Fold:
Amino acid sequence: MFINRRFINMKNKILLIALLVSSCQGCFSQEKKTINKKSEIMSNKDSSVYSHTSTEQVSISDSAWQKLLTPEQYHVARQKGTERPWTSAFENNNEVGTYYCAACGNALFRSDTKFESGCGWPSFYEPYAKVSIIYAPDNTYGMTRTEVMCGRCRSHLGHVFEDGPKPTGLRYCINGVILDFEKAKEAEQDYNTEHTDQQ
Ligand SMILES: [Zn+2]
Structure:
C-alpha cells in the first residue's frame, strides 16, 4: 500500500524532476540516496530555548544542543548535514500555518510561501521576516551555494537558490527535520465554524 502510493507520487513528480534536475544539483549533493519512509516530526518544544516570541539570540554549547535535539536534527542543524530527499513529512504538507525552527522556535516561513519545487525537500520562496534567516556563502563539495541558517540560533536549515517562483525568484530548500509546523489558529477556527454551520 505504502509502496504503491509512493510510486504514484513519484510518477507525478517525474516530469518536474526532469525539468528541475539541473537546478537541483545543489540540493542533492552527495546525499542522494534511496527513498525511505517519511521521517518523524520532532520538535524541541519543552526546552528552555524554544520560543515563538523571543527575539533573544540562542547561543548554547554543542553538547547542550546534542541533548536537546534528535541525532538527525543535530546532524542537520549543528553539523550542516542534509536529510535524504523525499523523507520529510512536510514536503507534501499543504496545511495553512507557520513553519518554525525546530531547535529554537523562531518563525521561519509562512505556509503561503511554500511551493512544490520537485527537489525532494520542503521549499519556500520567502522567509517569514528578514531577521528569520542568516545567510552565508557555502563553497563545499565543489559548488557555490548560499547556506541559510536560523536567525535566532544559527541552526543550519538548508540553502537558497535563485530559481524559485515569483515574486522573489528564490527557492529556499529546507531540511524538514529542522522545521516545526503549527496550524494557523484562524484557519482552524474557520474550518470548525463552517462545519458547525453545516450541521
Ligand atoms: Zn533556531
User: Anything to note?
Assistant: The domain at 2-198 is CATH 2.170.150.20 (Metal Binding Protein, Guanine Nucleotide Exchange Factor; Chain A). The radius of gyration is 17 Å. Helices lie at 2-20, 25-28, 62-68, 71-79, 185-198.
